[in-house]
Amino acid sequence: MTLNKQVLLEFLEHHLGVDTTTVDEDTALFSSGIIDSVSMVDLIVFVEAEGKVKLSPDDITLDHWDSIGNILNFVAGRQ
Amino acid sequence: VSTDNRLFKESLRAVVRDFGTPCYVYFMDQVRDRVARVRAAFGSRFRISYAVKCNPNGTLLRRLQSVVDILDVSSAGEARRAVLAGWDPINVSFTGPAKTAVELQTSVDMGIGEVILESIDEAALLNRLAEQSGKRQRVLVRIGPQRVPRGFGLHMSGKPSQFGIDEEEVDHAVQAIESFAHLDLCGFHIYSGTQCLNAEAVAENYGIFIDVFKRVCRTRNVSPHRLIFGSGIGIPYFDTDTPVDLTAIAERTNPVIDAFKQDPLFSGAELVLEMGRYLVGEAGVYLTRVVRMKRSRGVVIGICDGGMHHHLAAAGHLGTLIQRNYGMLKITEDDPATPEEVYTLVGSLCTTLDTLGRQVKFNGLEAGDVIGILCSGAYGVSASPIHFISHPPPKEIILETGCGDLLMEDCSELTAWSGSGSRESET
């Protein structure tokens, strides 16, 4: 599976219980409170596996993880 | 700048002048006002219980006597602090999944109002201890519900949890607890979610509590004396947060409560709203002074005399994966002509973990400036590793209006480790 917007939206909806009807690429996920730390960990683990990237603690910042667009950009830069 | 904001800054400057930095400041008037708002919103439907774990300062507990109805403690230590602060133990409830035999014995000896049971094992142990003491102990049973609404942050529902008895197993547990001759089962307790800013979700959660209470009580034909609702109401820590609409919660909840109380099984039940940070969180400020400025590879860093050893949560290490900046305010006079710049604020500790803020905007920042970190009244110093790196603990100052003046009192209780002394910066 390749990581893309649709895949991330489906993960948010089905695994993290997020109502994604109003979520787009730029929607703030963490700083807005849509997902909490526990869900963020699940999301990071999912992205690490699906995006085939190895993450270090320094990679876990809002700039990289706060929206679907940020996540896709970050992963693209690391592949 | 509003008058309130000007007065707020002036009172904080007075604290800095008289007590120095770093310190925590608690505005008692704001706590009283918050409780009054909660009472106005829900009328007489709920009594209010304060969760001591969020701020166990002794002077605060003493002053809360005339403000809230009940204290909820999570250790025998907190129970003793409550009594030392003048509380009648009958008005104290004791929660926690790891209560030891010693703690349970202490509860029985002290005459704690209610022990909140989190397992059948604990119930059996408490029953034996009460029997040996020739007493009957009032107890509530904490239920871990299967469901919490969307919109909650950290929550414990539907997942494996150390807290309470799983809803799926509670009928059996209640039957067992009813059979213990030295326990008096008085009701139930649910605290399944916290720090929620969505009024609809909070109200929906109370609806879930009521459904669970109804089902459990009807199944076992228990007419409860007391039902405790863990409020779960959050506060706006970050600039993207919107304060929760308390009136909207009450408008949705009050009719549901009124209908619930029509049921003869529940008409005698006293309902309790248990809350911690919503009452005191926004009423606290942590003050720290910039000791030194540094430019490093394009970033301007303000190095402060406080840090994560006093305020773990602001540094992003308490229940969050990614640090977000708390609201911050420069307390020292601003020169309005100075353009806004972006700063990183770090604490005193020799670890990169000690970062209090990233990309914080101020109209200039220099050594000697004092920064106030807002929303610091709950989960502050008592939830921080104060001994790490052997700096002295922060002072705690409580402010309250009396006879028309704002009175400041040093209510510090924490003592420095031997040798850690004082390192107060000069004004």
Question: What are the key terms here?
Answer:
heterodimer; A: 79 residues; mainly alpha; 4 helices; B: alpha/beta; eight-stranded parallel beta barrel; globular
User: How is the quaternary structure best described?
Assistant: heterodimer
Radius of gyration of chain B: 23 Å
* Contiguous uncertain segments of 5+ residues of chain B: none
What fraction of residues of chain A sit in β-strands? under 5%
- N- to C-terminal distance of chain A: 14 Å
Tell me the strand percentage band of chain B: 15-25%
Task: Please explain how this structure is put together.
The complex is a heterodimer of chains A (79) and B (427). Chain A is an all-alpha fold and 79 residues long. In chain A, 49% of the residues lie in helices and 0% in strands. Chain A has 4 helices and no strands. The mean pLDDT of chain A is 90. Chain B is of the alpha/beta class and 427 residues long. Chain B has helices at 3-19, 28-42, 58-64, 76-84, 101-110, 120-132, 170-178, 199-220, 246-262, 277-280, and strands at residues 23-27, 46-51, 70-73, 92-94, 114-117, 137-144, 165-166, 183-190, 226-230, 270-275, 284-296, 299-304, 328-330, 341-346, 355-362, 370-373, 395-402, 405-410. In chain B, strands 1, 11, 12, 13, 14, 15, 16, 17 and 18 form a 9-stranded mixed β-sheet that branches. An 8-stranded parallel β-barrel of chain B has the order 2-3-4-5-6-8-9-10, surrounded by 6 helices. In chain B, helix 2 packs across helix 9 and helix 8 (199-220) packs parallel to helix 9. The longest helix of chain B is centred in the middle third of the chain and has 22 residues, at 199-220. The radius of gyration of chain B is 23 Å and the shape is globular. The mean pLDDT of chain B is 94. At the A-B interface, helix 2 of A face loops of B.
